[in-house]
Amino acid sequence: MEAIVDAEVNEGKNDVESEVEGDGTLVPATEDDVMQFEHLLEDEKSEPPSVEGLAQSKNTELESTKLDTRLEYASVTLEKVKQEEKLQSSSESLDLSANPPGDQTSDCANNAQEQKNELQSENALMETTPISTILNGSHSGEMEKENMETCAEPANEAVTSISSVSKTCISSMPDFSLIKGEVCLDKFTIRELQEAFRATFGRQTSVKDKLWLKRRIAMGLTNSCDVPSSHFVIKDNQIVHEEAKEETPCSVSRSKVEAGSPSGDQGTEPTKDGCQDSAASSYDHIKDLELSGKRLSRPTDEYDETKENLGMEEYSVKRMRKPTRRYIEELSDFETQECVARVPIFRKNSGHVLASPKPWIRSVRESGAQSTTYSTRQDSIGGFNVRVPYVSRVRRGRPRKNFMTLMQSFHPSGMASNFVKPPLEIFLRQNVESRNKIRKARSLPMRIPQLSIVDKKRDTENAQKPDSEEESCMDTFKFDTAEENTNDNADARPALKGGPKRKHHRAWTLCEVLKLVEGVAKFGAGRWSEIRRLAFASYSYRTSVDLKDKWRNLLRASLSQVPNEKEDKFSRKHTSIPIPTPILLRVRELAEMHSQTGIEIKPSKFSGHSGKIVQGSGSGFL
DNA sequence: GTTAGGG
DNA sequence: CCCTAAC
After folding, report:
1. What is the per-residue pLDDT for A185?
2. I need a labelling partner for A99 at 20 to 30 A (CA). Which of A222, A383, A510, A520 fits?
3. Would the Cβ of A497 be found within 7 angstroms of any atom in strand C?
4. b/e per residue, A278-312, with b = 16+ CB within 10 A?
5. Could you say which residues 541-570 of protein chain A have a Cβ atom less than 7 A away from any atom in strand C?
6. Are A561 and A581 spatial neighbours (Cβ–Cβ below 8 Å)?
7. Is residue A354 part of a domain?
8. Nucleotides of B under 7 A from a protein CB
9. CA A419 to CA A238: how far, in whole Å?
10. CB of A500 under 7 A from strand C?
11. Cβ(A141)–Cβ(A200) under 8 Å?
């Protein structure tokens, strides 16, 4: 047994690694569910050989069963759309094939039991548990604990756990999990179950109800967290929670899922977990763990409904998940929503979740993984770009999600409304106008995260871009040159944004300012449309409102600054472009001239600088 | 559609 | 820059 186990373990590890590689390569490329499935399938395919070898050495029966299952899977694999079908069929095949070999599994179980009888320790239990579907859960649970304390080697941990699982379960991990989940538990005595319970929940139980214990244990193992009320709040990022909730109920579902990916299951899952952990480790290990556990179970949440309900109530007591801020908030949100319509929503959600959430999680995970490994692929993973928002790129829908998830991952603490802001600030420029953000938040509470992010991105873009093109003209005081540039940009920008989004921020160039001033001098302040038409003919992107605003700003600047006059030519640091004092002076002068009916304000003073203007305005004025 | 103001 | 009210 041991020898075999070792061999298997090794094998398992190898498999895992190979899978990991496959996973790694595939994952980045595949963002869609389909892709995901495919890749899983591929993994399975690739894996079989190793497993087979093991199986052969060990049990021919198992081998055959596995092969069958694999074949089945392979046949089924291509049908993306029929994922569920695939799962079911696979599970069925597994059941059929597995039942005969069941002896093997049963053997395992027996062995485990024997060992248990002797040892009875929690550890022993844990090891034995792997046989059932619980195993995964248990491992995850362990993982969780470990991770909690030591975040160091998530991936490794996952692998090891997997290996251990394979060890106990031997060749056909997935199989028994599917088939035996219940069986194994059944075999346990009440006492054993109680032990298991203790191991799982860390507390004794006097309950002698086998069913209850089983259920409880299964639940506990499968779900690290227990959510009293299972609802899905589909927050932008938060699908996870949903999953977790759903997950809780289903030992069965889980088994099915596993069945779905028999050979590959081990490897793939663990690897995934590892990835997640690594990614997630940055913030919330627990959550990640949960997620990982859930992923598996999720696909078939529907079946468990009955169980769910029972389980939920019962096992809400057990292991409480640390109340993360985010978690709490979500929960609260849930509750509120829940009140409206619980059951119906639940159903809906379950279905909903099935479809969408998975991808999501995956995406998240991917993003995490990539963040570490594939820094280069920023584009594909919108989230990651946050740091490096280059951007002339058009944003696509996808990135957003990732981005959000990513954001969450980084800032687990900041939730709901808060969570949006902090990340943005952290990752992006601070000098962006806070106003906009706030305002948007106000208007679009639900969408806040996305919008704000988008805006941010844009802002970042804006900030960077201007420098390269227009600014140069400004800085160098080549006023004339600026004109040409602007036109191009102007057109491009709006188009990209497409929507009613914020106009691309264009810093006012000196030339523009000059033109504006001239225009005002010529036509007078307030005739913005005219000024725009005549003086800004070349600057299509400047609207009359823009002119007005700019003028206002100029005025303000001039008023505040003029007094000091000669201080520094480019005094305004905060301003995008330093406005030369002379211009400010001119502005002020113009303002004065227009504003008052006839009061002269020391026109003589300025004659030197803006004599021309003064004259003009003066003449007009007079 | 413009302008003026506030945000 | 955005938004809105008032022209």
Report:
1. 55
2. A222
3. no
4. bbbbbbbbbbbbbbbbbbbbbbbbbebbebbebbb
5. 541, 545-546, 549
6. yes
7. no
8. 1-7
9. 12
10. yes
11. yes
Instruction: Fill in the amino acid letter for A292.
Output: S
Predicted confidence at residue A499, as pLDDT, reads: 55
Same domain membership, residue A190 and residue A132: yes
The values of phi and psi at residue A137, to 5°, are -55, -45
Residues A295 and A379 in one domain: no
In the chain, the amino acid numbered A287 is K
User: Same domain for A462 and A516?
Assistant: no
Strand B–CB A530 distance below 7 A? yes
Q: Which of A258, A292, A322 is the last residue of a domain?
A: A322
Q: Which residues of chain A are modeled with pLDDT < 70?
A: 1-187, 193, 200, 205, 213, 217-500, 561-577, 593-622
Residue A470 and residue A527 in one domain: no
Answer yes or no: is A485 within a domain. no
User: Is the distance between the Cβ of A532 and the closest atom of strand C smaller than 7 Å?
Assistant: no
Do A555 and A449 lie in one domain? The reply is no
A544 touches strand B (CB under 7 A): yes
A498 touches strand C (CB under 7 A): no
State which amino acid sits at residue A399. P
Domain ranges, residue A518: 508-621
A449 lies in the same domain as A537: no
Number of domains in chain A: 3
Asked if residue A183 and residue A62 are part of one domain, the reply reads yes
Q: Are A164 and A261 contained in the same domain?
A: yes
Please tell me the distance from the alpha carbon of residue A23 to that of residue A29, in angstroms, as a whole number: 10
- With CA atoms as reference, report the closest residue to A45 among A268, A257, A363: A268
**Which bases along strand C come within 7 Å of a protein CB atom?**
1-4
| String of DSSP letters for A122-189 | HHHHHHHGGGSTHHHHHHHHHHHHHHHH--S-HHHHHHHHHHHHHHHHTT-HHHHHHHHHHHHHHHS-
A149 located within any domain: yes
Phi, psi of A410 (to 5 degrees): -70, -35
Q: What pLDDT is stored for residue A595 in this prediction?
A: 61
Domain assignment present for residue A481? The answer is no
b/e for A407-440, b at 16 or more Cβ within 10 A?
bbbbbbebbbeebbbebbeebbeeebeeebbeeb
